[in-house]
Amino acid sequence: MALALVAVVARLAVLQVRDHRDLAAAGLAQRVRPSDLPAERGAIVDRTGAPLAITLEARDVYADPRYVTDPVGEAAKIARVLDLRPREVERKLRTADATFVYLGRQIDVAVAERLETMALPGIGFLDVPKRYYPAGPLAPQVLGFVGVDATGLAGLEFEYEDALAGTPGTRTVELDGDGLPIANGLEVVEPAIAGRTLVTTLDREVQYLAQEALRRAVRENRAKGGTVVVMDARSGDVYAMASFPWFDPNDFEHADRNATRNRAVTDMFEPGSVNKIVTAAAALESGAVGPWERFLVPWWMRVGGYTVNDSHQHPVQTMTLGDIVAHSSNIGSAMVAERVGSPTLASVLARFGYGSPTGVGFPGEAGGVVPPLLDWTDITRTTVAYGQGISMTPLQMAAVYATVANGGTWVQPRLVRGTAGPAGDLEEAPGPPPRRILSKETASMLTRMLASVVETGTGEAAQIPGYQVAGKTGTARKLVDGRYVRRYMASFAGYLPASDPRVVIVVSIDEPSTMYGGVAAAPVFSEIARHVIQRLAIPAAPPVRPPPLATEL
Amino acid sequence: MSLPAREAERWAPVPSPSRRAVTPARPPAARPPVPSPPHPHRRTRRGHLSAFSLLTAAIVSALVVGLVSLNAMRVDAAYRTRSVAERVRLLADERRILVNDVARLSSPSRIGTWARRTGLVPPAPGDVVILQIPSAETSG
Predict the structure, then answer these.
(1) Angstrom distances, CA of residue A543 to CA of A456, A535, A540
(2) Which range (A410-414, A463-467, B24-28) has the least confidence?
(3) Closest C-alpha to A438, from A401, A468, A471
(4) Which of A263, A506, B6, B79 has the fewest CB atoms below 10 angstroms from its CB?
(5) Which has more pLDDT, A2 or A460?
(6) How far apart are CA A224 and CA A488, in angstroms?
(7) What is the DSSP letter of A541?
(8) What chain B residue is nearest to A463 in terms of C-alpha separation?
(9) What pLDDT was estimated at residue A312?
(10) Cβ–Cβ below 8 Å for A54 and B103
């Protein structure tokens, strides 16, 4: 008896003295359950505050096959509600040795509640967040999308993951034997910090109008695709960035991978004649060619063993720089570039940002390709003069035209104004200061030349009654597997009003059957510009004078 | 302090029996127990003790009742807090759903689809007349 008593006392001593810490901790661990408090993902809004992406509550539907009593009957009911195949659901419900099988992920709450009311044995529900894009396929490549784990996978969702995701919190609660919280028990909450709202520069009305115009143009020209960039000439704010084909980010799992690329930022193309404005800028800025200087321009010429020619046969013509730009003469541009020289031309290209990403803040932005100056030959200089042999993105092209529109000052294109907290306090995204690329006089002369392109040259289809447009057409051969093929990238880049530019628009149509930028892309520019004038209430401005033309000298 | 006379008499010692009056063979009667005289202060202390006990019991009872009440109020408040927090969460969810609905219903693509279905078309280029107003800030 005494021995038993001693044993009990000894055991008590072991439990209460030696092991009490571990046992107390084990007991606490049994009662106390820490759980994550997910942070609400920040919304993405357009420049007016209209939501473009928002996070709502949804449900994951799962089954514990051990408790499913009637797999066939339950599968039929579940399949009907979740729009699944009954056989597939039944197979999951019959999964052997499994205690958890997903039947549906991120199901809308209303749908899940219909299933919940059926109270099917072995079927459970988990609260999960789901990203919604209320405007559907509006700027989907720009916004990107979010995976089932609520992490950004593409576009701005990916680029601004840290700001959007927020910081998760934790909640530690003491539970009773049934797993219910003890009202008077321990409860420690470290609240989650919601993600910040991403305020973009996009305007959903302009974006929609640009997408619609682009869709129509691609269909009418039986093209492969196309891109549009609409940008504020002064601030660099991108109002619209459209790439066709596109997809619905609410259903990105079924999207064609080709359609998920933001071509305006990630795809490079040889600009063609839209690049002649840079050749003209280099000529004027360096003083190598004056605006009144005249050239005798044939329709073809030999350079370094290669033959280059204009798009149309013509007799030898007298042309000024204004004529060369207005009529998009390849030979004229090549002659101007010869006067300018390769180093100066390469230097001006670099100042405009060719070969470097613009820093717009988008994942995978391409910087374009410019051959190193050491590799330049006569034919390199010649082709670069009319926009072949180099490549760039449509956004880079928009930045080039915005520089001319701004009187020679380069502004950083931007897609994001900043992030806003719950109180709406906007934290502006930092950006580099504007930098002067060209003199005001050069920019002004270039604007006069670009206006004459639309008034009398290749870009007449871009005209808008009541407004003077400055712009340039481009038709570039595509390089496929190292060889130029008879497939074209048709483009038009321009701005308006010419004398007081407010908005820059770049349109590129990929492989249109109509081939030319003046036919395939310029009308799209005009259509978008007319909408933008109304949307942004852009007032008309007095026209600029025409540039010196050979016919008037 | 001295006892009163009557009290002293009552507690006076009992006289022992006389030898002459001895009766044979009778065992002596058991002597009644002699209560010891009370301590002069004892009765007062008992009264004080009773009062103290009562007071302590009252205070302890009040504390217990107060503590239990406070605890009950705390539990009640905890339940109400949870209930309110849950309601806030539901309302926040509802608000987000409504924001989403407004954004979806006001999206340009939905309005565009609706407009096309009802036969509305964009104006032809020539149908929009831009009025040139010198030194004015409006156009359209």
Answers:
(1) 14, 22, 9
(2) B24-28
(3) A401
(4) B6
(5) A460
(6) 11
(7) -
(8) B125
(9) 86
(10) yes
Task: Respond yes or no on whether the N-terminal peptide bond of residue A245 is cis (omega within 30° of 0).
Answer: yes
Distance CA(A171)–CA(A195), nearest Å, equals 18
Rounded to the nearest integer, the mean pLDDT of chain A is 92
The string of pLDDT tens digits covering residues B80-99 is 988 998 999 889 888 988 99
Check if A186 contacts B (Cβ < 8 Å): no
For the record, the structure tokens of A115 come out as 């299933």
Which residues of chain A neighbour B112 with C-beta distances below 8 Å? 208, 212
How confident is residue B22, by pLDDT bands cut at 50, 70 and 90?
very low
Distance between CA atoms of residues A324 and A314, nearest Å:
13
Q: Which residue has the tokens 């974006």?
A: A207
Indicate which of B109, B111, B131, B135 best probes the interface with A, i.e. most A CBs within 10 Å of its own CB. Answer: B109
**Residue whose C-alpha is closest to residue A250's, from A62, A395, A392, A55:** A55
Please state which of the ranges A234-248, B32-46, B89-103 shows the lowest mean pLDDT. Answer: B32-46
Q: Is A189 on the interface with B (CB under 8 A)?
A: no
Q: A21, A27 in Cβ contact below 8 A? A: no
Chain A residue with the nearest C-alpha to that of B138: A539
B83 touches chain A (CB under 8 A): no
Identify the three-state secondary structure at position A317.
strand
Distance CA A142, CA A121 (A): 43
Cα radius of gyration rounded to whole Å, chain A: 32
pLDDT digits (tens, 9 = 90+) for A513-544: 988 889 999 999 999 999 999 899 999 899 99
* Total count of residues recorded for chain A: 553
Query: Could you write out the DSSP letters of every residue in B54-105?
Result: HHHHHHHHHHHHHHHHHHHHHHHHHHHHHHHHHHHHHHHHHHHHHHHHHHHH
Side-chain half-sphere of A66: how many Cα atoms within 13 Å?
Answer: 4
Q: What is the C-alpha to C-alpha distance for residues A60 and A541, in angstroms, rounded to an integer?
A: 57
Model confidence band, residue A1 (pLDDT cutoffs 50, 70, 90): confident
Nearest in space to A241 (alpha carbons), one of A270, A288, A267, A206: A206
Q: CB within 8 A of A251, min separation 6: which ones?
A: none
Backbone angles phi, psi at A380, to 5 degrees: -60, -50
CA nearest neighbour of B112 among A208, A366, A284, A447: A208
What phi-psi label fits residue A119: left (phi over 0), alpha (psi between -120 and 50 degrees) or beta?
A: left
CB contact under 8 A, A50 and B106: yes
Q: Does B79 sit within 8 Å of A184, measured CB to CB?
A: no
A141/A229 Cα distance (integer angstroms): 13
> Which is nearest to A441 in space by CA: A553, A320, A547, A328?
A547
Closest to A186 measured CA to CA, from B73, B84, B64, B78? B78
Preferred mutation among A37, A176, A186, A204 to probe B, highest tally of B CBs within 10 A: A204
The answer to whether the beta carbons of residues A381 and A346 sit under 8 Å apart is no
Alpha helices by DSSP H, listed for A14-139, are: 20-31, 71-82, 86-93, 109-117
Mean pLDDT on A433-460: 94
Indicate yes or no: CB of B96 within 8 angstroms of CB of A56.
yes
φ and ψ at residue A123, rounded to 5 degrees: -105, 130
